[in-house]
Structures are given as structure tokens and as C-alpha cells.
Amino acid sequence: MTRSKGENQPPLPGVIAEVDRLLRLARTRDASDLHLEPTAEGLTVRMRLDGVLQDVETLPKDLARPIVSRIKLLADLLTYRTDVPQEGRLREEDVDGLGDLRVSTFPTIHGERVVVRFFGTSRPNFDLESLNFPLAVLDGLRRAVSATSGVVLLTGPAGSGKTTTLYALLSGILARSSHRIHIITVEDPVESVLPGVTQTQVNVPGGLTYAAALRSLLRQDPEVVMVGEIRDRETAEIVTQAGLTGHLVLSTLHGGDVASVIARLLEMGLEPYVVTSALKALLAMRLVRHLCGDCRRQGPRVPLRISGHVHETNTFESVGCAGCGSTGFRGRLPVVEFTTVSGELKKLILRSSDSDALQAQLHAEHVRTLLERGIELVETGRTTLDELQRVLGPIETEESTHG
Prior knowledge:
By secondary structure, the protein is α/β, with parallel strands linked by helices. It is 31% helix and 26% strand. The chain has 12 helices and 17 strands. The protein has helices at residues 13-28, 64-74, 135-145, 162-176, 210-217, 233-244, 258-267, 272-278, 343-350, 355-364, 370-379, 385-392; strands spanning 33-38, 43-49, 52-59, 86-90, 101-108, 111-117, 150-155, 183-187, 198-201, 224-227, 248-252, 279-291, 297-298, 302-306, 309-313, 316-317, 329-340. α5 (210-217) runs parallel beside α6 and α9 (343-350) runs antiparallel to α10 (355-364). The model is unreliable at 1-8 (pLDDT under 50).
């Protein structure tokens, strides 16, 4: 391993052991992120568990700088630069089987703050069937990616499971193919290595943007293309044109729900006929924490207003036990909205209709919204109403007609 410039002495053995302990503790608890934040009192250790940041411990103040320096050293960052943000990776061989981990540092008034991102297990197995999608959505996704052309778009905020779903879709395409299939991805960053897939990471300072990479990779004769994110009109135009010219393209676009994604493509300036011709399916995603089945308890019935109607909803509450680490939750579940693009929806897109009109049509076609899917998870005891509101925002309630 190349030692970072300016590092004169090896870290103390106690610091090496402490960094190893923190990384292994985060992996053992299935944390997605390890946060190390220097404060006036010490080094605060937090972990993001099932999407929620939780305090773990506070280490002595004199350990803060050595621990941060050790992580920077492993990630090949400049240890003598503490005044600028830096990004790097911890390679699997440097952290003894914990996997490739992403590292980000950021200067603060008390020292450098570090976030280490974990990407599932060190050897992830991306299986679409294990992601707990509703059966109808699972079948719809399978049909969408069995096509030889067109665009399948995913939307949702950061940490909503989009990349994991994309990887699972690609793995499924490879597994079901009876012949060698050429798949290329363009990502920022590459989060996991997929055997059998050619993966590329964008390098904006070097001129390798999403658009630039796409223009070149389409000359590489791919059958399936995965684009980490559509960020601008140029990328959107290349993606849709690729979908129209015999490529299956999987990508993401930030938006609140299915209707807003379609509206955003139109707002980017894409021709409506291009959108209707290229776009095959859309999936909006969120993740909620899964209630621990060992300690959950029945809660009160709550009158909720859903799609204009008041619905008496059964609720459950988190308690906490040894099995769930006293959090009340184990793992996460997807809340999804899925649709294909056909029929009356295409007509509305051709008329450049706004998101309200598109949403009304989706409702007429009985496409279940994120809220409706989420309420089903609440009623069946798989999550709580509070957790759903944490993810989707406030849900309208009414006084019960039963007093």
C-alpha cells in the first residue's frame, strides 16, 4: 500500500486496534455508515442503522486525530491536509475482509469529521427476490427488464435502495440469459463489483461525465446499459435515444413519485413522443424500518385520510428487546410505486400534462401510491405509523367517527 505523503511515523498499535474495532463493530451491526465526529468533549461515534443515525459511544479527545489519521492513511488520503474535504476508499485487503469501504473527510472547528460508507457484505449477493417487493411489482420489474430495448427508471432520495435494486436487476438479467450478454455501467461511484459486468466510474475533473461516458460506451456494442443517475438534459437525451435504438437502459432520476419523474423529463426539454416511446417502466422507492416480530405490540386504531377517504387503520408499536438490540426494528422494507407506460398515460404525456394530471391518471389505473403501500405495511404490523411518517412526511388524520 502507498503511504500518504507527509506521514512520518506509523500509527500507534492501540490506534490500529481501535480503528479495526470500530470498523468491525459497524459491520457486525450491519451499519450502512460509520460517523466519527470530533467535538470539544471527544470523538463521538455514531452508526446509521436501518437508515437512522444512532449514537454509539464517545472516545477520549486525544484519540480523535490519531484515529482519523489512521483511516486517512488506509484510504490513501493526504494525512497532512486537514483543511480540505477528501474522499477515498478502504480496500478489502487493508481491512481484512470487511469489503471495499468509501471514506469521506470534512474539516470542522474541532478537527476532521469522517464518514465510512459500508456496501452490504464484503461479497454481496444481489437477488431481486430477497428485496421484499410486492409480488405484482416484482413481476412487473422482471417483465420490464426482459425487454431488449427501452428505459426503466427508478426514483427516490439517497439511501432509498435504488442502487441495490439496479444491481439486483442486472444480476437477474445475467442469471436468466441463455447466452453471453454485454452489460456496461456508468456510476458515481461504483459501489460494488458485479461479476460479468463492465463497470465505469465517472471522473468529472478528468472530463468523464455521465454524458461523455455514455457517448463512448454506446460504441462498445452493449446490450444493457446502467446509468447511475440522470442529472441533466444531455444525459437524459442520450439515455432515451439509447432506449430507442435497441438498448435496454436502467437508470435513476430524482423525484418524489412516478408522476413527478415523468413531469421532470418533460421539464428537461425532452420531446413528449421520445418519452412515451422510450420509457417502459418507473419505480418510486423509499425504505422503512421493519418492526421486530419478537417484541412488537398492538397499538391503537387511527383514522387516516387516504385518497380522499377516511380509513380506520390498525397500528403496531416498537418496544425493543435483546434480539433487535433494543431498537424495536430489524432490517428495512421497501415502500414502492410502480407502473408501466402505456395507454391513457401515454396520451397525457404526449399532451405534456403536469404531474397532477399524471397522478390522477395513475389513480384511475389503480396504481398504488407510496402512501397506500406504506399503510399496508403499517396495518400488517411490518412497520409503525411513526416510521412511515418519518420517511413519507406527515399523514393526515381525522377524529374517529366512533368517538
